[in-house]
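chain below, 310 aa
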Amino acid sequence: MNMVRKIAENINSLSEFVGTVEYDVSMKNYTTFKVGGPAEVFITPKNLKSFCFIKNYLQEKEQKYFILGNGSNLVVSEKGISGFVISTQKLNLIQYNLATEELICEAGATFDAITEFCINNSLTGLECFAGLPASIGGAVYMNARCYGSSISDILTSVDYINSSGIISTYSINQLDWEYKTSPFKNFLSGSCILSAHLLARKGIKKTIITNCEKNIENRKEKGHYKYPSAGSVFKNNHKFGKPSGQLIDEAGLKGVKCGGAQIAPWHGNFIVNNGNATADDIKKLVDQASQTVFNRTGFKLECEIIFCGD
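prediction:
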């Protein structure tokens, strides 16, 4: 028995851990791209206390681990992920503090759940993120942006556990945030997001529903849900004068295929899985689009999806 398996089997016997431990779990079922091989060990803590415990425990054992949110910006290799994957899917508590007008969401809370909570409680401020297939932890990490608004625009603070195992709170400083970039990619890298505090005020329920439905319908019209994908592949750069999708369109790449992956015929900045795509297929299309646009314009596109695995 290898060391990873031995450590994994010992986890369930630890009184400090509440959750599940599984082996050789297909990552296809945990990413919106529906690609990827198995996670050697897949751990799902049931609460934040268990999440923090298992993260620190694996660090003490000098084991590598990968934190998984909703898998909406992720491409996992066909070889899968060796070591440990820690899923945040059960860390999904959502609360509202009326006194501070803050929505408090655990890292694994999805935007579908957050949107439903806001509608049920007549809370406004997050309608632009309705339909985003992400968890709040991932959205904070990436500083997700939808319809002209970024997560950092409504974020007040983030609870996190740092690489030394210390739980701390980061209070928003807009100077730390940029377009689709957060401090958790920079000076707080190595930290794990536990929960996010977001501004949300009481509003008119009917108006909130209308705005959420409008944004979800717009996503459908743009083809966000037609095939498995990770949404936008490349960041936009205002210095280029045009959106990345338009640059790819003008390069004649819409509809180009590689194996089971395809640059969407309806949008140059989407790559979709036609049913049997691999991570290599997707990576080759990313590289092809990037190189072709660079050769034509001199602009270097910046990929925003994350490739991971062995």
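The first strand starts at residue 19 and ends at 26. The chain has three domains: 3-87, 94-220, 225-308.
thats it, cya
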